[in-house]
């Protein structure tokens, strides 16, 4: 979770809690109405937290998906380069072997 996102979630939750508290203090009603207001405030808070959590989950999945794709691409590039380098090494060794065979043939005459 990024610092910015977690700070936003904390600020949102704190703002809702403060708003509910001030609403209760400045609009006193019967106990049943006050409890209903508190319940509604908590329900709103719960809905907002679920939304934030869902957004955070989506962002995280997207980031991991991008990272996975980038890693796969990097591995594919490395394998391709390794294959190319192996071909170069084989060609070099074949050339050296041919030279050694020529030198050996001259020495055996």
From TrEMBL:
Q: List all membrane-crossing ranges.
A: 6-27
Superkingdom, taxonomy of origin: Bacteria
Q: Does the keyword Transmembrane helix apply?
A: yes
Is this entry keyworded Membrane? yes
Protein name per Swiss-Prot or TrEMBL: Gas vesicle protein
Note the coiled coil stretches, chain numbering. 61-103
Question: Which InterPro entries does the entry mention?
Answer: Desiccation-related_membrane, YtxH
This protein's UniProt keywords = Coiled coil, Membrane, Transmembrane, Transmembrane helix
Question: What species is this protein from?
Answer: Flavobacterium aciduliphilum
